[in-house]
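new request in #modeling-help
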Amino acid sequence: MSPLLLADLTVFTLALLVGFEVISKVPATLHTPLMSGANAIHGVVLVGVMLLAATTTDVSGYILLAVAAFFAAMNVTGGYVVTDRMLAMFRSRR
Amino acid sequence: MNTAIHLVYLACAVSFVIGLHLMNAPATARRGNQISAAGMAVAIFTTVVVLVRDHTVTTGAVIALVLGAAAGGLAGLIAARRVQMTAMPQLVSLFNAVGGGAAALIALGDRVVSNQAAVTGVLDVAIGGVTFTGSLVAAGKLAGRIPGRPITVPFGRPISAALTLVAAALGVWFVAGDANSWLLGGVTVAALAVGVLLTLPIGGADMPVVISLLNAFTGTAVAMAGFVLDSTPLIIAGGLVGAAGAILTKLMADAMNRPIIAIMAGGYGTGDAVAVTGG
């Protein structure tokens, strides 16, 4: 394994451990918003799609890139907005 | 400059962790989501800076990226603003599907998949493919487009098992042999089929737990895409969501008094899914 891959693997393992610990006793009413919030966070895939653009140079690649950008942008904007709406409703009801 | 960019990405990763942590309690949940959103905005802006600085992006790629992202962002925004409270779970599932799809497309589109990234590239398309179709079926069931009752496909389980073996074989061939993109395409097709076959037999009442599980899958797929691109923010955020999503899935299953294994086995629950939303 290259040093680069080892470094990535270290970061990934530690991120997993943080992820296991960051969620503790969540009240059941927050389950759906929390799922939605986590869903928005993996919208970071948009950053990956942007990095992919740097190596794309042919037409089939452009089409794939546009579809991926559409998907990722939908994930990130929609994810955050719908989570915020859920939580706004949650608060006003209390 | 490179150091600065790494530090900004690190700050974004910290904001995701803090945001997710604040979402554990009702009083701080909304602020948590906003902190996480702010981190995301900074991460995306920083990536724009990186692309502009490096000058390696062709005009065609810029057009494809901007058009795709603008259309997708607008579609997501409109859908999220217009959706009824009762229809939110299926919308989250739809957003989860496209996230997984984007992660899979990254591995498919990456022309410089080296031997080092081959393993993670295969895992990316496999997990991303399963979660793409799986989440679409889950969303369809909750929306009533697909009957919510458990649908048993004849020989569904053996077929999924066989497809998984085929995908694994193609994946090993891709990693060990030549990096032929047709092999990666084969893995993708098999994964897409497995996603459908896994979700169809599960009843609508169990769908929220399944969506949470697929959400954790997408997180993992995004982390794999991070390995392919050697991008730390993707690895951290993806790993975070993968693990937190897994814990959340367990909590949701416990709250419903349903073991996860029993849920995945399927065949239980009615089509009335609206009654089970947690929020």
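bot summary: Chain A is about 80% helix and 0% strand.
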